[in-house]
Structure formats: structure tokens, C-alpha cells
Amino acid sequence: MKYAACFLVTTALFVCLLPLGATTQQQSPFQYQIEKTLIAKRGAVVSAHPLASQAGLSILQKGGNAIDAAIATQLALAVVYPNAGNIGGGGFMVAQLKNGKQLALDYREKAPAKAHRDMYIEADGTANTDKSQQGHLSSGVPGTVAGLFAAHQYGKLPFKLLIAPAIALAEKGFVITAAEARGLNNLKSDLKKYNTQTPAFIKDGEWKAGDTLVQTDLANTLKRIRDNGQAGFYAGPTADLIVAEMQRGGGLISKEDLLAYTAQYREPHRFQYKEYSVVGMPMPSSGGVLLHQMLKMIEDRSIASMGFHSPDAVQLMTEVMRRAYADRAAYMGDADFYKVPVKQITDDSYLTQRMKSFVAGKPTPSNELQPGAVAGYESEETTHLSVIDKNGNAVAVTTTLNNSYGSRTVVGGAGFLLNDEMDDFSIKPGVPNMFGAVGGEANAIQPGKRMLSSMAPTLVLKKGKPYLIVGTPGGTTIPTQIFQTLVNILEFGMSAQDAVYKPKFHHQWLPDELVLEKGFPDNTKTALQKMGYKFGKERGGIGRTELILVRPDGRFEAIADKRGDDSAAGY
Ligand code: GLY
Q1: Which of 214, 418, 526, 539 has CA atoms 20 to 30 A from the CA of 557?
Q2: Which helix (H) or strand (E) holds 167?
């Protein structure tokens, strides 16, 4: 088919803009295109990598539904996007099926049984974040494979078909982009430091765009999953390889931990914003609750009339972010282990009370922003994908290894990276994690507990039907980015593409600084400075939002973030 415009990026990689209503061309792993935006009639997938989006699209075209396509896309991401796509990490899926049933699937990693509260505290009382952020001890028990099988009960096609594209990509290889080559080259010294066997990611000399990455060990692991289902990962040879890797490197994950892991369906976190119903992820994600708090704190404040990126609008949004994140630090954690006061902190009167101290044009001092009273950076390598099919099944999945390339530890002989998700626990009260977030009792380490997450796969419904399917990586910036994307569309009336592409900002209470993305207007920054806001280091890019918007005529507008190799596919 003909593209409206294509730009040659490397010998093998083009960036293309599809004409309206076009079908994505079949992609070859050895020459493929990035498609940033498209409008499709029958189905759309948007993810961090063109070959992963293509894998999902091929499943839709074979008669699979959006759940099938989301599974195939995730498995392909585990091969072509090792920074965050994974089988050694975890994630969340939020979906609405064509019959209206809503799902929130939790396959977040868990602390191993031998984990304990002070496992990262040294003899002198200091918290050792090196150990929580890299290497064998930083890994939680992976949840992704259990999640994929739990999701599959709502799919239509056999799992064997869904995993086939990932196996082919791992076995035959694919050419890497410039960003991937950079990532792998930057990773080399860590890979050497934290691996007990040389992984496929290490090459003699430097990686460059257009090189082929073949992952034979990973292909064999994926085949064991294809042939034995969940047990192909949590038992048998793969489990043996994980446990052997843990023993070589001083990690804690045991055979019993792997066998005991289960993914969990939970009640989605739902709320109403004006005429829209928002369906988000509940605990152990802070995402749904933070989004609820932030949107409700602006709902009656006529933000649309203030104008996009005006000092007034940005200040209001910053102040609601600060209040919500103070609550995150105090109250949020795995609700299976800690009584999280969700009802109280999302109650309208509580949120009105929280905004009593808000003064337009002036930052509320941080010490006055303590969590409300209740009775009773990008190393942000998470990744998001959004899918919709012709029947209106809508799926939002965010999945992660935590840091870019997780713990930097590849399971010897099994070919996949393990997560460093243990750092998402509060390893010591007041000690910030890699995203600068602090926490306490609610998010302290306990065996079998899930660490608090910011991942926020989100659906916005209009009259009960999918309108927006959205999510992003970005650690603690995830909920504030989704907040902005939604406000951009629902309040500022922005196009889907502008809502994703325009510069973002972020505040999380502590550290007490406003972070701006490159391109944020200087005059607004100056106005905020005059109000008394302090600024963190400017960020080159905040997150990578993948959005599908359902147009009034029923067609799907898919937007892949411009901030990476993200790509849309549709037909
Ligand atoms: N590891 C990032 C998150 O779950 O929030």
C-alpha cells in the first residue's frame, strides 16, 4: 500500500504517516515502518514497538479479539522491547468487553517468601538502594506469564497462535532501531556486572541501528510456555533456570514462590468525571485512585476557561498533583496486606476539604500539604499498549520491569530479564525510591505482598461505550501524564495527537519541585517561578503515551507517542 509520507531513519527503518482509513502494511522484522498516527475502522493496536503492534494486528486480522491481540502484543514486546516488554516482570490490564463486562487484572510482582522489611538496610541503618534497584536481590516474583494466561480466558484464539509471532521474532531475530542500539550499548557494563552467564544482549563491539538481535534462549523459553502453558514458566526447566540464577547471584526467588504465584482479578476503580465514566486500576496500583483524586479536585473549577498551559491552569493542576501524591505516600499499598482507605480519600467532601488550602497564584507550603486526615525519571521503563477491536472490546495494558532493562539480570539459559520491582516498595520510611517517591507502613516489604505501583491503564467511557483507551510508562509520572492527557481532551478540547504530543509537567509533593518537559512555554514557567514554585531538572521527554480515541463515526484514531519508536497498527 502507499504511505502518505515516509522518512528514512536507518537502512531498515522508516517513519511513516498513513493516509486516513488505511490498513497497516505487513511488516518484516528486517525492514519495518513506524506509524505514528492512523485511523482504522476494524481494529487498532498501539504499542512501544512497530513489530509488537504488528503482532497484535495480525491476531485481530486472524479473527482474534482485543484480548488476544493484547496478549500477542505483550509477548512480542518481551522480545523486541527488552527495556520494558517482559516475561520477567509484571503488569496490569484494564478492559471492557463487548458485553459491557469490565476487568481489572493484577499480575504485579510479589515479594518472595524470604523477603523482609529491612532486607535493604545495612548494619549502619542506611538503606542500600543499589541492592533494591539492580541485581538478583531487586527482583520480585514475576507475574506477567500468569497474567497472560488469566487474560486468555476472555480471548478467542488458541494461545499457541498468540505466542507464535514472539517465538519467530526471538528465534529468527529482528533488526534493532537506533534507540535500541543506544540502550543496549549503555547497558553493557551493567550486563557484565550483574550476569552470571553472557546474555544475547552483549555483543563484541558496539550495537548499531540495523543490526539483527537473535534470542535463542528466549525462543526456547517461549516454546516451553507455548507447550506447557503457565507451568512452562512457573515450573519445570524455566523455574529451575530462574532458581539456579538466583542461587548464583544471591537472589531470593524460590521454586515455591514461583509455584505459588497467581494473577488476580480485582474490581476496577471506577468514578464519574462530568459525563464520562473512568475505569482504572485499583490497588496495588495507585494510578486509578490518584487519577480520581486529581480529576475530582479540578472538576468544578472551570479549568477550560483558564486555557491550556496557562499559568493558572498549570498551577491548579500542580496543586492537585501535590495533594494526591501526599496521600499516596501515606496511605497507598497492597490492599491485600494494608487497609487502604480508598473510600475516604476519594470521597467528594474529603477532596473538597483537601482543596480548602488552595490559593490561586501561590504554592501551598509543603508542610501544609501533609496527607489528609482520614478516620480509621526516563529510567521509567514501563510500557503501555492500547487495543480495540471491531466489536468494541477495549483493552489497556501497562507492564513493567521497573527500571530500564529491570534488574539488568538475565536468567542464564532462559534468555529473559528479571525485574527490579522490589524498589517500588518503601524500603525504609522516608527513603525515596528511584522515582523519588517516599512511603511508609502501607508500602513496607512483607513476604508475598505486591509493591505499590503507579501504572494506570485507563478507559474513559462515553454513554457506557469506550471513548479513550490510554496509558503510559513513566514511574510516578504515569498518573499525572494521564491526568494531563485527559484534561487536554475533555477540558481543553484538544485533538488526540496534541493531547499526547504537547509538553507535560509533573509534581509529586516530594521532592518539592515542579518538573517540566522540554518545550514547555517559557512565559508560563516564568509566571510560576514568580508565584514561588521551585523547579527540578528539565526532562527531555516525559513518558510515552499510547492512546486510542473512538471517533463519533465509530472509527478508531490511534496515536503512538512521538517520544520513542512507538507505533500504531490498524485495519
Ligand atoms: N515500576 C513502576 C510502577 O509500577 O509504578
Answers
A1: 539
A2: helix 159-172
Mean pLDDT on 541-556: 97
Write out pLDDT tens, residues 295-344. 999 999 999 999 999 999 999 999 999 999 999 999 999 999 999 999 99
Q: By alpha-carbon position, which residue is closest to atom 1 of ligand 1?
A: 402
Q: What is the dihedral of CA 319, 322, 326, 332, to 10 degrees?
A: 110
Backbone angles phi, psi at 318, to 5 degrees: -65, -45
Ligand 1 pocket test: which of 92, 325, 380, 424 has the largest number of ligand atoms within 8 Å of its C-beta? Answer: 424
Q: Render pLDDT for 180-195 as a digit per residue (tens, 0 to 9).
A: 999 999 999 999 999 9
Residue bearing the CA closest to ligand 1, atom 4: 453
pLDDT tens sequence across 116-158: 999 999 999 999 999 999 999 999 999 999 999 999 999 999 9
328 alpha carbon – ligand 1 mean position (Å): 13
Distance 473 CA to ligand 1 centre (A): 8
Cβ neighbors of 482 (< 8 A, separation 6 or more) are 287, 291, 456, 458, 470, 471, 472, 545
**CB within 6 Å of ligand 1 — which residues?**
382, 400, 402, 424, 453-455, 475
Spatial contact of 515 and 507, defined as CB atoms under 8 Å apart? yes
Q: How many CA atoms lie within 13 Å of 556's alpha carbon, on the beta-carbon side?
A: 33
* Cis bond upstream, residue 284 (ω within 30): yes
User: Which residue among 289, 378, 478, 508 has the greatest number of ligand 1 atoms within 8 angstroms of its CB, and so is best to mutate?
Assistant: 478
Q: How far apart are CA 510 and CA 525, in angstroms?
A: 19
Helix, strand or coil for residue 539? strand
CB atoms within 10 A of CB 513: 15
pTM: 0.95
